[in-house]
Amino acid sequence: MPRHIACLTFDFDTWSSFAVRGMTTPTPISRGEFGLVGAKRILALMAKYGIRTTWFVPGIVIDTYPEACAEIVAAGHEIAHHGYTHELPAAMDAEREEREMLRAIECIRRLTGRAPRGYRSAAWDLSDATLDLLLKHGFDYESSMMGHDHQPYFVRQGDVVSADEPMRFGKQTRLVELPISWSLDDHPHFEFLRTKSFLMPGLQAADGVLKNFTDDFVYMTREETDWGALTYTFHPYVVGRGHRMLLLERLILALQEMGASFMAMEDLADEWLGRQDARAAAQ
């Protein structure tokens, strides 16, 4: 029987993604704080359909809104690592990145009673040191890369890449990659963002985005005749707006009609590893 999985994930950044861009005036901060409103709506919707999800939460958000984060835990959802601030790992040196990583681990441990199993970097931009740090500090999975769309894979460490030479591949690690895609992220589709250096137009109609989201799942069911998993990324301050909440519910209903199994990321990683073990034992 074919098995097709949908992971609904939420990057609960609130105002942290604006602050690291220097946008700390009242309006962008309030825009991020709308994520608290969106989070309540999302939790109610997930409870309605009995779906367990994964929330990637910066440590600074846990420290600022402990009650809101505790509600996510109380509802049975997974809390995963999303840095302490929302600064890009590639913009930090290795020492600072590790300090921030450890600080956020302690925030999550304090909130949930255990260390996080999964990691997602800010803006999906890993540094040269990130994978070493994830392995050093015991993470089981990572979700910032795009080497497949329907299949997890083991992360390579130590690739050597230059513009004018063939790539030299590094070694395979035990870290599981649960891949993502900008096309399955609500932020670039919907968010209008203007700074001195760039413009993100956003503000697309929800129906067109919903068709993208559902068509990718349709394609997976055709391409992966045995087993496949697709990860969707949402931000509560983005998807929490009314017409986008309707999109999210329609997505759930459409995926249910196609036989989707909904799963948190840590459970997906466990299932995929179990399949690898079973395959190895059968050889």
TrEMBL record:
Residues 26-263 form the NodB homology domain. It holds the Pfam family Polysacc_deac_1. It comes from Marinibaculum pumilum. CDD domains: CE4_HpPgdA_like. PANTHER family: POLYSACCHARIDE DEACETYLASE FAMILY PROTEIN (AFU_ORTHOLOGUE AFUA_6G05030) (PTHR47561). Is involved in generating a small heat-stable compound (Nod), an acylated oligomer of N-acetylglucosamine, that stimulates mitosis in various plant protoplasts. It comes from the Bacteria. Belongs to the polysaccharide deacetylase family. This is Chitooligosaccharide deacetylase.
